[in-house]
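[recover] target loaded
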């Protein structure tokens, strides 16, 4: 069983970019967002429960979930967001642990946005948190998802604060949109993880 480094940060903090840098070094990436999309594919139990709860109006013409509409609903209604989280969280976790157990490497990067919110940090051997200025996070989110600044702020505020997230960190990586600096930080952490985890085996 590999050691698990949980990589987390606020929405649009650069988790995918950092995970890709680790992947280039040969580290397996277990991404909760990707798993979340897999478990709500058309016909799955989770998909059927979501459609039953929100009605057929939550579907696109091709029968798949209308993610943009669903996002609008859950980030404007805490009750609906919690309902969806409670539905998907156990399913995602089961698949996550299955994928981690299949890896035969020193360590894996487990990308999990709601690490602190869902109290998942205890399932990791180490917690790596992304430190990013909120102004940069907001600008990225508006551009990435083509949404209003108002919705973007609601999405950011729905998560724990950066200060609280950083309080759980074993390691911190600063993402200020400088790829060279980001790559250097990832390379340094990768070597530290190999040294530290190999010593424990």
């Amino acid at each position: 069983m590999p050691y698990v480094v949980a990589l987390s940060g606020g929405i649009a903090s650069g988790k995918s970019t950092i995970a890709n840098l680790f992947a280039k070094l040969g580290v397996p990436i277990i991404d909760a967002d990707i798993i979340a999309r897999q478990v709500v594919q058309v016909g799955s139990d989770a998909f059927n429960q979501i459609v039953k709860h929100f009605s057929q109006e939550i579907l696109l013409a091709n029968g798949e979930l209308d993610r943009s509409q669903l996002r609008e609903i859950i980030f404007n209604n805490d009750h609906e967001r919690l309902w969806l989280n409670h539905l998907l969280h156990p399913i995602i976790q089961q698949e996550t642990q299955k994928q981690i157990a299949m890896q035969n490497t020193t360590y894996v990067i487990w990308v999990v946005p709601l690490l602190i919110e869902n109290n998942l940090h205890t399932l990791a051997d180490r917690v790596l948190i992304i430190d990013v200025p909120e102004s940069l996070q907001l600008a990225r989110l508006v551009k990435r998802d083509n949404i209003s600044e108002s919705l973007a702020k609601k999405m950011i505020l729905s998560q724990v604060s950066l200060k609280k997230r950083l309080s759980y960190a074993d390691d911190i990586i600063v993402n200020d949109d400088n790829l060279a600096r980001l790559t250097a930080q990832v390379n340094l952490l990768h070597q530290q993880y190999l040294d530290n985890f190999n010593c424990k085996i």
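[recover] notes: The beta strands are 3-8, 29-31, 107-111, 126-131, 171-174.
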